[in-house]
Automatic annotation (TrEMBL):
It comes from the Bacteria. This is Rhodanese-like domain-containing protein. It comes from Rhodococcus globerulus. CDD domains: RHOD (cd00158). Residues 13-100 form the Rhodanese domain.
Amino acid sequence: MLEVDITALEAALAAGEPLIDVREADEFAQVRVPGAVLIPMSEFVSRMGEIPDAETVYVICAVGGRSLQVAEYLQGRGINAVSVRGGTMEWHQSGREVETGAV
């Protein structure tokens, strides 16, 4: 399974699963899913050591393209990663809680 929807993400976050946001810092500051950790796609390879050791790592971007690429990259390295289809945009448009501002 390479992709999940925002409903599955919501359940995973409630269970304490990690979420990595691969957008750039300016996008992250505008709006993000609460609890997301920023590791921009442009820095991903050099920051691989920051990937949490978890059963499943959830990866999100704006709409799902970048996160799918990163999830495929992680899976190729033996990490069970899934992309969130629809991304932060769908999460926000659904009316779910979001955070804003620089971290």
